[in-house]
Design a protein that fits this description.
heterotrimer, A mainly alpha (about 280), B alpha/beta (about 325), C alpha/beta (about 260), A: about 280 residues, mainly alpha, B: about 325 residues, alpha/beta, Rossmann fold, eight-stranded mixed sheet, four-stranded antiparallel sheet, 11 helices, about 20% strand
Chain lengths: ~280, ~325, ~260
Amino acid sequence: MTAVLTRRPGLARLRTARSPLHPLCLGLVGLVTAAALLAPWIVPHDPNAVDLGNALAGPSAAHPLGVDAAGRDTLSRLLLGARTSLLGPLGVVLFSTLAGLAIGMAAAWRGGWLDSVLSRSTELVFAFPGMLLAILVVSVHGEGLLAPVIALSLAYLPYVSRLTRSLVLAERARPYVSAYRVQGHSAPQICLRHVLPNIAPVVLAQSAINFGYALMDLAGLSFLGLGVPALTPDWGRMVFDGQTAVQHGYPLSAVLPCVFIVLTVVAFNVVGERWADRVARRDR
Amino acid sequence: MTPTRTPHALDVQGLRVTLPGTARPVLDGVDLHVAAGETVALVGESGSGKSLTSRGALGLLPPGATVAGRIRVRGHDVLAMKPEQLRALRTDTVAMIFQDPRAALNPMRRIGDFLVESVTLTRTMNRADATARAGELLQAVGLDASALRAYPGQVSGGMLQRVMIAAALMGDPELLLADEPTTALDVTTQAEVVALLAELRARFRTGLLFVTHDLDLAAAISDRVYVMYAGRIAESGPAEALFARPRHPYTAALLASTPRLEAPGGRLAAIGGHPPDLRRELTGCPFAARCPLATELCERQAPEQRTAPGLPDHRAACHHTDRLEGSPVDA
Amino acid sequence: MPDNALEAVGLHRAFGSVPAVDDVSFVLPEGGSLGIVGESGSGKTTTARIVVGLERADAGEVRVRGRARATGGGGRAGRLARAREVQMVFQDPYLSLDPRTSVEQVLRETLRLHFPGTDHDRRVRELLDQVGLGTRAADARPRQLSGGQRQRVAIARALAVEPAVLVLDEAVAALDVSVQAQILNLLADIREQTRIGYLFITHDLGVVRRVTDDVIVMRRGRVVEAGRTSEVLAAPGHPYTRLLLESVPRPGWDPAAIAAARRAL
């Protein structure tokens, strides 16, 4: 199987073979996920408790990572922010993977006019910048996480559907698929029971990489003040809120979420790529 | 070997190759030689080690392999060669033809470029000379010089295999290793390729090691034959003698299980069981488990090569080679 | 007149302007074995694919037990009925099984589809036994099996449907000689037991001689010779059949003469 995953230019150079990078990234993914899951129970402070008297204080025993311009505890906001920051991309990846699989599979299996229509329309989406689409949808729909998630899902769908289409085309040419057809199995049965499990690992690897990119895009949107409601803790939003603090010489509350965004994106990228590598090697 | 005689094109002695993660060597004491201008067939089933043996002559052994024994090409020790010497060996002295010519060719490059590239890259010939020679060789293999400008996708499999033979002859090799060169071809095309190889061998006095799984083909084309089983030479000898009177039960069984045009109908004498597993150690004769002549001795002790009476070249590694005639495997 | 197991009448199939199958007709009697011999590009594989329904014919008809074989439609019932007419064993045992499905699952899938509500345990054991695989192989994945074992699984899978005709497309070509003999013997035994009809697609005349009663020789999409296998091989009528026979390597074989004859033809 010679599936090529789509990666963005800067990250494509990250080589994962034979380096301690992979276990490190896997650990980071696990840590961030755990933080997001457990956040409500482990946060030391109410993330929205404003304490203007204590604004921009440095790290202390009570606030290990300091507080922001409004006196809110940075650690608590980072932990709870992990929830929104991961939930959004999760929605994007879920929707784009499911829809992409369905569309790519239908296009490859049926071929003919259906393939043309589906392939052209996904290319159309490809040609339209995802962020622009998201901004457009949010400005029409208003505040809320749902609108940017749906917009980005659409933007990421072509990555998955194009990959699925090429994988299914290759898989379909294998004699075992012909064998099942001769046996009297219906096309949907063969697709779901045999083709899908065989191509799933590669598609999921692409989705893991997409997860990182979607996280970056959503953080960008909330930095612009689009999407996430004002009071909800979110990494992108925190960077935006921290701007003034940076100008005042207290960079911690803005730099930390930045670091987390970058590390998480890289971690998902490395894990996804490594996964795809392993699938390719194991393949028969 | 006395120094006055010209060395063999290929001389393999006691070659033993062990791969990581296996319990027994994949090649276990292989002795084999190809004289200049001689055609030798190396016959075996998949996993017997026949391809590994022929690749060894090019110094191409799998990574991580532990190698003992000696491989000499025209008297030069291949295993002791430095990388640049190996490269020189592969371009000047030894050439190889593979089973699937399409896999060995870049579909985006013209056939002419492929032929010329191998010799110009090592600067043994300039481009004009190389192109002239390529045209000449293409004619020798029965193709038009216009094929130089064609892409691999534009010609048939049989023609491509002839291109591969021409490419192999570009450097005037003294030894040609052909690894199942006709397996992917139709029977009539196979005849053409074999005829071509025979003609070129006579003309250029190239030693030819022909690796194949097809016993009948081996019998038809070669001077001498080696039969391999589970990494060892089971039997070797002049083609005619070996096929008329096999001295190893494996050779006899293989001959009996080949469906032929002349043989009577009815059931084929299939060999039961499977070749021994690489993950298990092997104490006695590797064929013992499938052999109708096997005794307790075969399980215990690996047989030595024994010479047939009156035929010093015909050897078989079998304890019971004398009992073979008239036995159930002797068809 | 008893019905023939399989009958092809005037099959045509062209890819673009190139005729791959050109007016091919043949008859396979009930319980018989018919070989289709030819080299690459002769149209033998396309013919086989038309018979099993993986390819459609531009013209002509395939009849199984006297009934015209539908090319599609009929929903689930039609699909299953077509599957019970003709089954197929493919050339490459390494690619014709889903790498993720174990031997037992492969058979159960087929039995569930075609014979729901019967005793599958017993039938799986029977099938494994019939193709000479122990019950130990039942849990194995294809990658754990040798080429010969995989081809046995493929045969068991085809037999599970209980078809009238089994198409074997170069089914022993990828196997070692000793394994090939085992499979050929197995196929002969199965035909004796079940009276299933074989359509044997091959390039190997030695194989044809062993397993077929009748043979047709194809070249460039057309049938150049047809008849009883023993008669065709003993006294070939068409120069191409003669060339094919002479091309089979044997002691005293003259490849140069064959090459010349091939160019002359």
